Amino acid sequence: MRIGILALQGDVSEHFEMTKKAVKNLKIDAEVVKVKTKEEVESCDGLIIPGGESTVIGKLMEKTSIKETILKKKIPVMGTCAGMILLAKETDYPQPLLGIIDMKVKRNAFGRQRESFEEKIKILGKEITGVFIRAPIVLEVGPDVEVLSKLDDKIIAVKQGKNLALAFHPELVDTSIHEYFIKNLIK
Ligand SMILES: NC(=O)CC[C@H](N)C(=O)O
């Protein structure tokens, strides 16, 4: 198995390290690679899109034809923060999107005072620390989308088919979400 970390912009190294730890914990034979061309993306069985600036990453994904490759090859994708935004069908700002999760996302959704914060959240039967950095929230989901976590009444984690989107940054906390993605969504 080969797991790619999309290395166009954002917190690539944090995901790279956490994914390698997750692979070690799971005791599976998998290679973790940073990818930035469509050929490299095409060679992966699963892809992680990091946090960063979703407009920048989105434009580069179009320019490099990585977007086209993901859509054509239906590679399972996990996106955190900016990565979540890129998985959405719609945002409150016009920008390139993958549109592979049927949801509408609002960028920078936590007002100024709480632009960045940490809070305990419940997801996949566990409690973990959610690190929110100018995080988005999900405003609406379609019927095929499973809501995995909420903060108060705000949706912060969803899954549709083999794609997983998180408003926070598990790559800064522990391996649990990465392990879930590898074990359950990448075949
Ligand atoms: N930490 C992040 O990834 C922030 C996301 C950023 N606010 C965006 O809209 O792209």
UniProtKB/TrEMBL annotation:
Please name the pathway. Answer: Cofactor biosynthesis; pyridoxal 5'-phosphate biosynthesis
> What is annotated as the active site?
81, 169, 171
Q: Which reaction does it catalyse?
A: L-glutamine + H2O = L-glutamate + NH4(+); aldehydo-D-ribose 5-phosphate + D-glyceraldehyde 3-phosphate + L-glutamine = pyridoxal 5'-phosphate + L-glutamate + phosphate + 3 H2O + H(+)
Question: What job does the chain carry out?
Answer: Catalyzes the hydrolysis of glutamine to glutamate and ammonia as part of the biosynthesis of pyridoxal 5'-phosphate. The resulting ammonia molecule is channeled to the active site of PdxS.
**What EC number is given for this enzyme?**
4.3.3.6, 3.5.1.2
Q: Which organism is it from?
A: Methanothermus fervidus (strain ATCC 43054 / DSM 2088 / JCM 10308 / V24 S)
**Biological process (GO) annotations?**
L-glutamine catabolic process; pyridoxal phosphate biosynthetic process; pyridoxine metabolic process
Protein name as annotated: Pyridoxal 5'-phosphate synthase subunit PdxT
Subunit record text: In the presence of PdxS, forms a dodecamer of heterodimers. Only shows activity in the heterodimer.
